[in-house]
Protein 1
Amino acid sequence: MSTLVTGIGELTTNDDELGRMRDAAVVLEGGLVAWVGQAAAAPAADARVDVAGRAVLPGWVDSHTHLVFAGDRTAEFEARMAGEPYAAGGIGVTVAATRAASDDELAANLDRLADEALRGGTTALEVKTGYGLTVADELRSARIAAARADAVTFLGAHLVPEGSDAQGYVDLVAGEMLEAVAPHVDAVDVFCERGAFDEQQSRRVLEAARARGLALRVHGNQLGPGPGTRLAVELGALSVDHVAFLDDDEVAMLADSWHGGRGTVATVLPACDLSTRMPLAPARRLLDAGAVVAIASNCNPGTSYTTSMAYCVATAVLQMGLTVEEAVRAATLGGAAAIDRDAPRTGRDGRPLAPLGRIRPGARADLQVLDAPSVTHLAYRPGVPLVHAVWRAGDLVVA
Ligand code: NIG
């Protein structure tokens, strides 16, 4: 069954040859994009949808979320808005609530948030563990995430749980815990920050993950200067996320990591920066230096309780100095690069995975239609729910 999506006023493809097109059409077939071109030249298809001059772009690829959790941290948010600084210790509150929740409760909460994200145009999600912090709780978090996410990340090294000593806990994460979760995850992440895990502890976990063939990520340079970004680049991590505090050498290092092959994506999390009242990450500086930037929601109950990628994109334009085109690219193709899905891959189960983040033949048919003539409206009309329709893997999931 093929579907012709026609009447596209403005089509953002993220494809270097196709670029941004006017009066375009796209054919979807078998879950993939089969054809892209001018509407006047479109081939026949089994079904036809006319989007009446609206803008069409790839679905958002949200490459940083923490959606396996229970509980609520409204009180912590209120205290922060009243002047309290963010302290990573709040993670422990969510750990306690998550451990006390049933599998069904955790899965239902994840589904609620993933459905909310989908209605907002997010067609691909990375989901982290990290609120279990025992072998059993991290394993069930990974399993629950794997049922819904496009990429699953093990974040056992999120916080040293109450009652554990740091070194013993790092041994557990890099040993028994990693062994248990490895079949269910694509990558391993470490919160490399003062108050969480230091450079040596982070390196230990990341090297153990690499030895198992898993991809790496780092939460780094969120709360202040630190070793996270350097470590991520040195170890060839897919991404370093937060990056609010970067010096010029670190910015250059991230840009240079792409010379001669795949480098480390700098993932900025504007909603988190605002909610924690921290400086906004230097996305403009990173792009000017030639780094690859992703924008993600960091949806979690502590530092960034939003699934709205449109809000993150608008913030990146209005407050971080990105053009709309740059912000849209970072929230689609940038996110795809951060989860290693910007090219065809093989999944954990050995099946082929179509690339994400572009609208071109062979890509997964993930499209969002805006109730607007141009993507510029994402920043011009911030806060307005502009999503008119969404296709995910060729299925019309929001209409
Ligand atoms: O990405 N930085 C570490 N992890 C989360 C915070 C999670 C929390 O406070 O619950 C983050 O911001």
Note: The pocket of N-(iminomethyl)-L-glutamic acid is lined by residues 66, 90-91, 94, 191, 219, 222, 272, 298, 300, 302-303 (CB under 6 Å).
Protein 2
Amino acid sequence: QKNIGILTSGGDAQGMNPCVRAVVRMAIARNCRPFFIYEGYQGLVDGGSKIKEAKWSDVSGFLALGGTMIGTARCKAFRELEGRRTSVLNLIKNGIDALVVIGGDGSLTGADRLRAEWPEHVLALEREGLISKETADKYRALMIVGMVGSIDNDLASTDMTIGACSALERICESVDAILSTAMSHQRAFVVEVMGRHCGWLALNAAISTGADYLFIPEAPPSKDDWEASMCKTLKASRDAGKRTSLVIVAEGAIDRHLNPIKAEYIKDILCTRLGYDTRVTILGHVQRGGAPAHFDRFLGTMQGAEAIEAILRANSDTPSPVIGMLENKITTQPMKEAIELTGQVALAIEAKDFERAITLRSSAFSK
Ligand code: ADP
């Protein structure tokens, strides 16, 4: 029987609650004791009432709820060695011997760090007299299982992250609404969508809403005078009878010199060069709000169940895994590799090797 802590960390994402529910209920079904850790890594650092055993009924109704009911936070203290050492002590005090982390790239990086440093923290706590030798021997390693809760769909090792589908759904609904008013007035709209350094949401929103032009970080415009080519494309659509123009821009969009491309700038171009009545809509947090779509409930549930199985299968040599989904199958892969692979996309963009960035996103990620 294991005592399994569960936390959600970093940016919230729809589908985190269904995932927490699955972890709690699967743990109980498999004779383990699940523990909520509230407010992400902050709860680990604070301990006390922020760590509480979870009961079956505590997660009733979680399938339909957006956000994360156990809270999330950006925790500065956990970035420091001292904060992580306190976290180790709090986990041991509560008898927790496995941890499930649902979060983005940053949260999983933190989780992997905690796992790697764990033995050294335990030794230090013993040296400082904060735990006995017997306890130190009992808690020689911590099994951590990660799941990617992120609307950005920006992590390697999984085709879809928990929350991305719901966010895309919300973007499509919002753009549809914008388009009906745009059409009435023959307006142009520049819509900025989230995704940080990943263009997945913007790309899929553009395909799904029939956008005329798209800007994503992985594929900046190939020419310096992209403004002229954008105007030409938009004008061709209008000449062919379209009453609206829609440009979708990812929040992390850049030109080929890595300068940001902002929605307001695009608007100015459309107003001055084409004379279009142009408005900007920055969708913002509406994208991460509201109830999870079916797919995120399903994905969170399947992955949450697999997280418990992965913990029960593990032995002391098993590296901490991240649970993903590739080609419709739930997968388990080393967390370290997933994080490294994700980091390579950012490095390729920084090096202006956009071809590699695209290849990495589309092959390693199967996207
Ligand atoms: P996300 O998980 O959505 O990418 P963040 O990047 O903000 O969000 O990370 C969430 C939290 O994870 C941070 O507030 C911090 O507590 C922890 N974290 C992130 N990166 C690291 C790191 N390199 N080392 C230790 N902890 C980290």
Note: The chain has a mean pLDDT of 94.
Protein 3
Amino acid sequence: MPGADCRETRSACPYCGTGCGVLLRPDGAGGLAVRGDPDHPANRGRLCSKGLALGETLGLEGRLLAPQVNGQETDWDSALDLVAARFRQAVDRHGPDSVGFYLSGQMLTEDYYVANKLIKGFLGSANIDTNSRLCMASTVAGHKRAFGTDTVPGTYDDLDQADLIVLAGSNLAWCHPVLYQRILAAREKRGTRLVVIDPRRTASCDQADMHLKLRAGSDVALFNRLLTALYEGGALDAEYLQHVEGLGGALESAFASDASVTGLSDSEIAAFCRLWMGTEKVVTIFSQGVNQSTSGTDKVNAILNCHLATGRIGKPGCGPFSVTGQPNAMGGREVGGLANMLACHMDLENRSHRAAVQEFWGAPAMPDRPGLKAVDLFRAAGDGRLKVLWIIHTNPAVTMPEADAVRAAIKACDFTVVSDITAATDTARLADVLLPAAAWAEKEGTVTNSDRTISRQRAVLPPPGQARADWDILADAGRRMGWSAAFDYQSPAQIFREHAALSGLAGSFGLDFDISGLSRISDSDYESLGPLRWPVSRNRQGGRFFADGQFFHPDGKARMLPVRWRPPASGPDRRYPFRLNTGRIRDQWHTMTRTGRAARLSGHLAEPFADIHPEDAQRLGVQPADLLRLSSPSGQAILRARITSDVQPGDLFVPIHWTGETAPSARVDTLVAAAVDPVSGQPESKAAVVAAERWQPA
Ligand code: SF4
């Protein structure tokens, strides 16, 4: 194993979608020594602060060690018999749509695969969704509309080779720090220019040549203006456009668009367009600022339109590039672990795809229409349509929009199962059955990062108490439900082989996700599997897509979409005059169940806060370190005020990490309305409306 000493185990960081390789060595005191894997193509030895602190997050305090039913410890047989019986009863009495799974982009691909197979193929329900719906669903929808499949065209190597990198709605410096370091290295080496498009001044702006501080939600108008500038400047690629349909409609919409809604000056927009047009190698990275919007899918397509029209896609140093928030959001997409997808990028609403998957699985049932996406899934739990729900490794009682309503919905559900590493989450407290799951360093499987690189995650510590791997728990439940043969899995390698073989069907339908070259991988080769980028098939190996102009729509062509700017679902008014933006900070991860254990990570920003512009602070009589009460139609939160011109007047920024456990008054997702993108179903987490006032404890 080059680059590692013989006591080290090669694995993958469990946080962001960069997918850094790590080398792990037990430190003899129950923890791990962690360093970056110099041979992993994503990070080449680099790690960010969160990755470096991984070894400090593994203590057993608070770990769930045994199954619980109604708060009482029990054994696995009793717990899983009950789970199996309640799922079967619900399906028998109320039909398959009465059950659902809510998963996490932090699950491993093998875990996701078994969950998707169990609910779609055997319970017959498509009600399987994931916190990835809150992360990148708009990108999935935008990719499918443009390319015919959910394909990330480029690779991380493009970041090293680009001459211009545009960060749209992405604070890469804090949210994907190792990718940002790659960009800084490219700046150093080849003078790569950097443009940041964000309503807020973030750490990513520190090195930027240009910061376009546009109004929240106006990205479509900006990229439509870029498209018209490219047309007027003669920068369209006529040869590449032979592989693209829809130029006329996209241009018509773009010319009808009004760039003034961005709030940017004409000269700022012109400078951006000139830079983009005058640079051959352009990568546009986009993330939650684009995705988490009621027009998220249109934003994605507005970006893709510009790259398709100029042929800046699929070539070294070129392309639109979605970066995922979670370590295995991509793996979840690959197995079809979303309510509107089938396995291996096949289509739930395509009769041939459905029949092929059903036959492959030997499945008794297969839904023929999409299930409930995240927001609707919890609404159905709240109004009695969904009777039985299984939540795995995620905490929707604090992370979903309108979190108070979601909490009430979980309470109202007849029967809720939660699999997690701890009982100390807001969601776990609501469970009828709690199942102890193995944690990151205790389980085996694979994850896929943002550039389609599959990495092995390896166990270096034994699961404590009775904790088990998720695939094992799900397969055991499937067998107890009566499907012994279909869920007779003995190892993650066996599941991976099945997943890889199934992907061959996608390949036979001419789709992108094909890892059938790994369908006969031996246990020992799976054990030693190094990072590799899909596709891995007889015909194709890794690399970029679309340089050849071959797309996955039936006619082989891409689509440019006519997209028009729409404002966010709610606009500020007299009652709720502020625009609320939510996001991550550098050193915490999600609801801090792991990063909250590392003291040095709390040293960066130790408590929840709300960024407010000095003009607004003065108007409200708010001094530095005062408390602010934010309220919206769906909830309220109390946070420390940070007065800063990083946010625009009328805007607020609040981090997402503090929860009912760590700061009961700071549950920001209670404030966010559950308005969703009509195509992707992704909630608008970056443009809620709230009232703000100075608050003093009574
Ligand atoms: Fe982990 Fe992301 Fe940091 Fe890499 S950049 S070490 S994947 S959190």
Note: The chain has a mean pLDDT of 94.
